[in-house]
Design a protein that fits this description.
rod-shaped, mainly alpha
Length: 136
C-alpha cells in the first residue's frame, strides 16, 4: 500500500498544478480581451478610412468635372478659339520656316545621340492668340 506521505505530496503537487493552470487561463483570457479591443479599434479605424476615401473620391470627381472646369476656364483664362493659321504655317511663304529649325534640331539630336535612332518629333510649338509660343 502506498505511503500516506506520497499521497499528500501528490495531492499538493496536483493542487499547485491546478492553481498554475487557472492562473495561466486568466492571463490568456486577459490577452485575448486586449487583442479583441485592438481588433475593434482597427475595424473602427478601417471604417473611418473607407468613409474618408469615399469622400475624397467624390471631391475629386467634383473637382475634375468637365462643367466645373469649363466654368473656371471661362472665368480665369482668356481663351479664344484656335484659328487654322495659328497651327499651320506655310513653309514656302515663311522665310524663317519651321522646317529649317526642325532640320537643325534633328542634326543636333543625331550628333548628340551618337548613332542611336530616336523617333521623336520636334517640340510641339503653337502660337496662341496672345502671340506667345507654348511648348507642349
Amino acid at each position: 500500500m502506498p505511503n500516506s506521505h506520497m499521497i499528500k505530496t501528490f495531492n499538493w503537487a496536483l493542487i499547485a498544478a491546478i492553481i498554475v493552470i487557472i492562473w495561466y487561463m486568466f492571463t490568456v483570457k486577459g490577452q485575448v480581451q486586449d487583442l479583441n479591443f485592438q481588433l475593434k479599434q482597427l475595424n473602427t479605424q478601417i471604417d473611418e478610412e473607407q468613409k474618408q476615401y469615399s469622400i475624397l473620391k467624390a471631391e475629386i470627381a467634383y473637382l475634375e468635372s468637365p462643367n466645373r472646369l469649363r466654368q473656371l476656364a471661362a472665368k480665369y483664362l482668356d481663351l479664344e478659339p484656335i484659328k487654322t493659321a495659328q497651327l499651320v504655317s506655310n513653309p514656302i511663304n515663311n522665310s524663317s520656316s519651321n522646317f529649317a529649325q526642325y532640320k537643325n534640331y534633328n542634326n543636333k539630336k543625331l550628333a548628340h545621340n551618337s548613332g542611336r535612332w530616336r523617333y521623336k518629333n520636334r517640340f510641339n510649338t503653337v502660337k496662341t492668340a496672345s502671340a506667345r509660343t507654348k511648348t507642349f
